Amino acid sequence: MKPVVRPRSQDRFYIPDPTALGHNAATYPNACTGSPGARELTLMRFRTHWLCLPGLLGMSPLASAPVDILWNGGFEPPFGPINRSNAYGVVSGSIPNSWSDNSLHTGCHTETVYAEETNGTVGGSAVMVTAAVQPGFTSGACIQMYQSFSGVEGRSYAAGIWLKGSQSATAILKFRQSASPWASRATTNCAVTTNWQKFALNFTPATNENLTLDVTINNQPMTLWADEASVMVEDGDREWHVSPSGSDAGDGSTNAPFRSLSRAVQSLVPGDTLWLGAGTYRETLQPSCSGTLAQPVTIAARGGEEVIVSGCDVLTNAWVPTSNSIYITEVGWDLGMGYNQVFVDGVMQHQARHPNYGGGGLFSPALANVTVTNGSAASNPNTITSTNFGGRPQATGVHPGRLIGVRLPVLLGRNDDIRVSEPRPRQVFFCECGGP
User: 130 has which bridge partners?
Assistant: First the structure.
């Protein structure tokens, strides 16, 4: 019999008697040493299994260099359809992939149309945006297109974009927050003419936050063309280091690596590499930004070192016996019914139940024939019995041969009761059975 666990309350989990498994009840919870072959009892913190990252050999160190983190900054195909409307107007046409529009939320009445431009561009395709005043109003016509990205504290960003218009106008090039309160972080006015011109804007975030690069024209009916946009990270292609022996107060260098993956990924931008030192990282690996096709984010084990990213925590509290050879321990969190799980030596275990019938795998549970018998009165309700439990120890207060809690088809009664739908033999499985 293998150890199993079942959540009983917000912070309790149960396993069978460890001595029945050849373990000492006093030392079993602390058996994990991290050495090859050592036993480890762990609790799943998120729905994944072990992830082993092989060392990448033969890779040369990356030199710091500017990296463009925009997707489709050249406004190249494919262009996708856009069709949105609200009280402030309509946006329609075809917008380049990876770009979005916010013209309907600028506070002016507009009819804005996007299209691909292939003639007289800076390079390849460009985007052409035409804004007119919404019918029924005397003023309006707005353009606001943008692309979002993850800004990292202390990294220097340099934006650039080529613009021209059907007439002279003032466009606003802006870095702003991508969520409420959408505060502006850096802004410059661009004197657009009928000729292509390149405009630039620099910004260094004081904290990690999601940002957008905006191009806006307010209250001016016209056509605007945009091409070859970029957001360059000036110190791109950087290497970062993390180690179980490091500190999150470090700078992520080889000599002062970060301690946690969650801290390390906060520093990453497209084109960066994060090297993981040997050891086990018990946390969720969730990069704060996405790489691009040209500049992927690389997360890899340092060459030749063994790295394990685990979704489990080691259970270190004492195990206390309850009844029916089931042990309980305290943990400080709960993922909810059906999401908590215990692993022994990397193998997911059955949930604790009594009686402990069957030994099938978690995805092929043992089945038992049961009989549902109609009761004649409220004092003698329907009962569920099974010969499979004959001679097995039962939980306190439950008659031998009766099942303690199982999922069955039921009907809701008219008097706020629940009734078994049909009194006939059924087959049920025992992965959700009650314990003491």
Answer: 113, 223
Full DSSP string of 20-68: GGT--TTTGGG---SSTT---EEEESSS---EEEPBPPSPPPPPP--EE
- Residue-wise pLDDT tens digits, 233-257: 988 889 999 999 999 999 999 999 9
This prediction's pTM:
0.62
Residues 6+ apart with CB under 8 A from 123: 74, 227, 228
DSSP bridge partners of 86: 89
The residues, ordered by sequence, that sit 6+ positions from 47 with a Cβ below 8 Å of its Cβ are 311, 339
- Which phi-psi region, left, alpha or beta, contains residue 434 (left: φ > 0; alpha: ψ -120 to 50)? beta
- Considering only CA atoms, which of 24, 33, 32, 3 is closest in space to residue 341? 3
DSSP symbols for 310-372: ESEEE--SPPEE-STTEEEEE-S----TTT--EEETTEE-PPP-SS------TTS--EEEEEE
Cβ 48 vs Cβ 54: under 8 Å: no
Paired sense of beta strands 273-276 and 298-301, if any:
parallel
3-state SS assignment for residue 264: helix
Q: What share of the chain is helix, strand, coil (3-state, %, to 5)?
A: 5, 40, 55
The β-bridge partners of 7 are 13
Q: What is the DSSP letter of 83?
A: -
> Cα(356)–Cα(347) distance, rounded to whole angstroms?
19
In the three-class reduction of DSSP (H, G, I as helix; E, B as strand; rest coil), residue 388 is classed as helix
- Counted residue by residue, the chain has a size of 436
Dist. CA 96–CA 103, nearest whole Å: 15
Residue linked to tokens 């092929």 = 364
Alpha-carbon distances of 122 from 12, 117, 162, 378, rounded to whole Å: 64, 11, 8, 84
Q: What are phi and psi of 264, to 5 degrees?
A: -65, -40
Residue 307 contacts residue 301 (beta carbons within 8 Å): yes
The predicted-structure confidence for 152-183, as pLDDT tens digits, reads as follows 988 999 999 999 999 999 999 999 999 999 99
